[in-house]
Design brief:
With 181 residues, the protein is of the alpha+beta class. Helices cover 19% and strands 35% of the residues. It contains three helices and 13 strands. It is flat, with a radius of gyration of 26 Å.
Length: 181
């Protein structure tokens, strides 16, 4: 960022003589204050992570380890299929309890998708349940002891024409983005 300061025409006369150090110090302090005020954001900048990089959220850590597009989920003999023009996005991740108390998995940070316009899309509970019923995750524990890690998954139903260009994963809230790597 560039900060432009304009000094008065008589600046060279003001900065000479016994007051010179004081005037220069005041000018430099003012310039620094303007530059810092212009640079400081009003709210924290989003944390951007890539797949495989942990996102720390208080006493929990979420690591997205797989993003896959699918045409169906569930039992291959009786699959839940995607509708025409849509794609199912399966996101698998690890939830690690870094706190000192047990963690109820249902209260863990939500994993959502954000589209290129900034719209947040929650996972589809029925599609997620269909996937979990046939995966290695179907017997997941309802809580995690301190230091324990559990594999989790969520499924989304999105427009095939817009995905994956510009989409990202949100962990917890919009301040923690996970970009497909």
């Amino acid at each position: 960022m560039l900060v432009s300061l304009q000094f008065p025409d008589n600046f060279h006369r003001i900065t000479r003589g016994p007051r010179r150090p004081r005037v220069l110090g005041l000018c430099l302090t003012a310039a620094l204050a303007v530059a810092l005020a212009a640079c400081s954001p009003s709210k924290p900048a989003p944390s951007v992570n890539v797949v495989g990089q942990p996102v720390q959220l208080g006493g929990q850590e979420v690591t997205i380890w797989s993003i896959a597009a699918r045409s169906y989920v569930g039992d291959p003999a009786k699959p839940v299929r995607v509708k025409d023009g849509e794609v199912l996005i399966l996101i698998r991740y690890d939830l690690h309890n870094t706190g000192s108390a047990p963690l109820v998995v249902a209260s863990a940070p939500q994993v959502s998708l954000i589209d290129p316009t900034g719209g947040v899309h929650p996972s589809d509970p029925d599609l997620t349940k269909a996937y979990l019923s046939t995966s290695e995750l179907k017997d997941a524990a309802p809580s995690l002891a301190p230091g324990a890690t559990a594999r989790q998954a969520v499924v989304f139903d999105v427009s095939a024409s817009s995905y994956p260009r510009g989409w990202a994963i949100i962990v917890g809230d919009k301040t923690h983005r996970v970009e497909p790597g």
